[in-house]
């Protein structure tokens, strides 16, 4: 093939290629223009579930840790000297106020009492005779009469004193409760003040806790309290605050509260640690939303609400300020209005402005 023919063929191929390129560019430009000037861009639609926020009554509680104590815990001591001769109650038994629990040897005191009783009888008889002589027959002197009178009164007082001491050789329970511990044995020598036994009344039990100072203006006597004991399988008991301290503990910056809880059966033991929910305040028109609807963002917290109507409903990101903790729910202080629909399913898939379709939850 000659050089001329090869040149003419290459020129022809080049012309075809240029024509094809020009034709494709015009077609592509035409397609883009049609897309820009024709239909709207496709927008995704996300199915969501919502709850309508309505005002309702809500009681806010604060969580504390408290300690159970016996309502009365008394250490019983001897009031007379002597040797313990008898122990009348076993450890762990229930005793009533005034019931004897131990006896101290009373032989010496009993002899002294018998002597004093006799002396009191003699003094009384002497006084009666002296009185008759002085008042009826004017025999004797007034000073002799007065000495006889005061002698009789002194002897009687001495006898009563020894009778009281004799009575105190019997150690009695000052309160009703359980004899939790015996601190002496038969044969122990005791003196006034020697501990003999410990009696505990644990029905009701008393609960004490420290409340942070930021709640000082809100906690009042009569506030509701829920007491949960984890070691008893999470059993819950109810009570009411009976005492609110007036001064702060400078070390912990808390003030004390105390209340009692009924303890039938004695399942609550002094010394147990309890989880407390203490009523802080009652709200009559709180706006509560499920906790899972709230999302944390860099600026705080937000929820998605459904805005718009009909087919033009969309998700709107709404910054909110959280209030009280309500377990599975949380109160909203600001950012929501009553009647708005908060997205509770699908909130992780939507963005602000996304078109949404509200669907019913499956039953």
Description:
By secondary structure, the protein is α+β, with helices and mostly antiparallel strands. It has 3 domains: 46-55 and 287-358, conserved putative lor/sdh protein from methanococcus maripaludis s2 fold (Beta Barrel); 62-70 and 200-282, Efflux pump adaptor protein, beta barrel domain (Elongation Factor Tu (Ef-tu), domain 3); 75-196, RNA polymerase II/Efflux pump adaptor protein, barrel-sandwich hybrid domain (OB fold (Dihydrolipoamide Acetyltransferase, E2P), Beta Barrel), CATH 2.40.50. 25% of the residues lie in helices and 42% in strands. It is built from 3 helices and 20 strands. The chain has helices spanning 3-37, 107-136, 142-167, and strands spanning 45-52, 56-77, 82-87, 94-95, 100-104, 170-172, 177-182, 189-190, 195-212, 224-229, 235-244, 254-261, 273-286, 288-290, 295-297, 300-307, 314-326, 329-334, 341-345, 355-358. The strands form 4 sheets. The chain has a 6-stranded antiparallel beta barrel with strand order 2-9-12-11-10-13. A hairpin with a 2-residue loop joins strand 15 and strand 16. Helix 2 packs antiparallel against helix 3 (142-167). The two termini are 85 Å apart. The model is unreliable at 1-38 (pLDDT under 50).
């Amino acid at each position: 093939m000659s050089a001329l023919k090869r040149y003419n063929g290459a020129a022809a191929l080049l012309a075809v290629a240029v024509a094809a390129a020009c034709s494709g560019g015009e077609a592509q430009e035409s397609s883009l223009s049609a897309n820009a000037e024709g239909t709207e861009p496709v927008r995704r639609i996300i199915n969501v579930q919502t709850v309508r926020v309505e005002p309702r009554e809500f009681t806010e509680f604060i969580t504390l840790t408290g300690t159970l104590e016996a309502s009365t815990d008394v250490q019983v001591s001897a009031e007379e000297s002597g040797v313990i001769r008898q122990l009348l109650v076993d450890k762990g038994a229930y005793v009533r106020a005034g019931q004897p629990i131990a006896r101290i040897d009373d032989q010496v005191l009993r002899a002294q009492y018998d002597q004093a009783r006799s002396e009191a009888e003699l003094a009384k008889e002497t006084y009666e005779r002296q009185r008759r002589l002085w008042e009826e027959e004017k025999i004797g002197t007034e000073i002799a009469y007065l000495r006889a009178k005061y002698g009789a009164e002194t002897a009687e007082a001495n006898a009563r004193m020894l009778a009281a001491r004799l009575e105190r050789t019997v150690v009695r329970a000052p309160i009703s409760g359980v004899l939790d511990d015996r601190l002496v044995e038969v044969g122990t020598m005791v003196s006034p003040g020697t501990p003999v036994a410990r009696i505990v009344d644990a029905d009701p039990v008393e609960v004490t806790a420290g409340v942070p100072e930021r709640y000082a203006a809100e906690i009042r006597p009569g506030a509701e309290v829920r007491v949960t004991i984890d070691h008893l399988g999470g059993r819950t008991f109810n009570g009411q605050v009976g005492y609110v301290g007036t001064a702060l503990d400078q070390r912990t910056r808390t003030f004390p509260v105390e209340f009692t809880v009924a303890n039938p059966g004695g399942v609550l033991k002094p010394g147990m640690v309890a989880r407390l929910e203490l009523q802080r305040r009652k709200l009559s028109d709180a706006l509560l939303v499920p906790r899972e609807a709230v999302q944390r963002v860099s600026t705080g917290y937000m929820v998605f609400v459904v805005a718009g109507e009909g087919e033009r409903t969309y998700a709107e990101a709404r910054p909110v300020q959280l209030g009280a903790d309500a377990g599975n729910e949380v109160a909203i202080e600001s950012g929501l209005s009553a009647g708005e629909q908060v997205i509770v399913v699908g909130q992780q898939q939507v963005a602000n402005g996304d078109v949404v379709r509200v669907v019913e939850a499956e039953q």
